[in-house]
Amino acid sequence: MMPALNTASPNTVSLHDHALDGEARRHAIECLLNCYLREYALPRNEADLDYRAQDLPMSLRQANGRCIGIRLPGGRLVVRIDRASLLGRCHYISAPYFKGSNQSWRPLDAQELASLLCTPLSGAERVGEMLQQVANSLQITRTFLRHSRPANEAADSLLASEQHQLWGHALHPTPKSREGISHADLLACSPEVGAHFQLHWFKVEPTLMRHQGEDPRSTLRQLSGRDDAYPCHPWEVARVLADPLVQRAQEQGLIEYLGPLGQAMYPTSSVRTLYHPQMPYFMKFSMHVRLTNCVRKNAWYELDSAVALTRLLRPVMSELAVQQPGFMLMPEPSATSLDLSALGTLEEAREVTECFGIVYRENLPVADRERYRPQVAMALFTWDQQGRSVCRQQVQRYADNIGLPVEQATLNWLDAYAALMLGGVLYCLFRQGVALEPHLQNTVIGFAEDGLPGRVWIRDLEGTKLVPEIWPAERLSELDERTRSSVYYSAQKAWQRVGYCALVNNLGEAIFHLANGSGALEQQLWGRIGDLLHVQSMRLGYPQPLRELCAGGAFPSKENFMTRLMMRADREAGYTLLPSPLAIIEQRKQA
User: Fold this and answer.
1) Each residue of 354-389: pLDDT tens digit?
2) Rg for the chain (alpha carbons), in Å?
3) Model-level pTM greater than 0.85?
4) Which domains does the chain have, with CATH numbers?
5) Distance (Å, rounded) from C-alpha 75 to C-alpha 72?
6) What are phi and psi of 531, to 5 degrees?
7) Crossing angle for the helix pair 300-323 and 346-356, nearest 10 degrees?
8) What is the DSSP letter of 64?
9) Cβ(57)–Cβ(97) under 8 Å?
10) Alpha helices in 357-450, H assignment, sequence order
11) Percentage with pLDDT > 90 across the chain
């Protein structure tokens, strides 16, 4: 929250900002260490989660909790934690300390830590870019903390959850990096500060506009108040105006820049997808801005694939309503852009198509928003600004409503959520050959009257892929070759992505926060997931990945740290195999 400027003295403001900066640094360090632990140190047995050396720094000897130690090429790293999950996810309560050969212990800031972890793994150019992005993410986090506003969940629970994810992805080295965005533009258009803003519009010759699927022009008219206008995101408009083909169209009177106008839209947690409670669609805009790992433009073939997948998956959605009631996909029935191919080369025209590309995702009906009070999962399985797990407050309200002990309420809550989410995701993969991407930002949870999860929506068809054995090329004959290749994953890759998103990114974070540092409760929660996986495996005919999982097989975990460091496309991300918490629990039972 921002300080009250009329009542706080300059010194108070300074102390407040200093405390917020400290929280931003602590969170940056936590992201870096958790990524490095999970992707590198733990798989190589270079970390000790209960480190008891005699020569600990004095400040760590006197603190509560336990220390972890990490061996590095140039020395040792040690930091104190108050909890470590079965998946190696830690919460840190001290600065990290490093001791090189023949040196004394010294505390590290986020930049020093990033350099120490990254430099042995890659070349100078890659490390330099990574360090810039770490610094960028840290500075932006500081800005968001200073300008954040309290959420008004009662007015619109979905919007409140979209716009108050201050920390972002907990297992990403640069969760808030946004390259090339000015301070003013950051505050004007970022969800973390409760922004809402007008789009930038162009008067366009009608023959230049192209749409696929449903015709969304009535929505554009509703937003702009005009029949001849087409929008782009404020962060994209400078690129559009500098484009030679657009300039050529302006000279010929085919396009005229109108500036910002019309109704304001609200950015969601993905930043580029915008929401208005009265509009029938979310609108996913192109931005040539790198957010975390990827430049968030709508590639021309993604405009094709979003609408095509919606059409192809309609029968799957109908079957889900019967087989997995309460689990739904959010369709993307329309895409639009401008076609300037008559004025230039195909390559030049595709650049314009991507700059102006918009994907339209169906909004949740007003009745569903009012009844189920939906929230994005990432806004629940995270910390608030006071360091409390948000989902614990949700569970406490359910426990109070029903009159249950909190521990039993927590088990019930996870049962309800995991049955919906895992049931639907696994059914889609193993019965339909559809690999969803149910990570925390793509998962929306709705609640029954008693407070238990009662609905799950999975969104963003950009990450949805098809398994070619079930979806051969002849089933996709209407797609051109490039678009068709973009929607395919091999069976192995489909399982890696689904397994990671559902079990590690989603349920791993859910259980970390629901357990609240209790090892006994964490084991019970993972035990419930194990029981559910056995039931799903039997129901789905014992597919091999689930058989192996139920037998204690490793969990696939996407390498966000190494993917960013090595400058790989997200689609080419590698996977680390994490020891299964189900197997760890079984081993402890037998010990």
Assistant:
1) 999 999 999 999 999 999 999 999 999 999 988 999
2) 24
3) yes
4) 15-144 (3.30.310.280), 196-317+331-362 (no CATH), 366-590 (1.10.510.40)
5) 5
6) -60, -45
7) 50
8) S
9) yes
10) 366-372, 377-380, 390-402, 406-432
11) 84
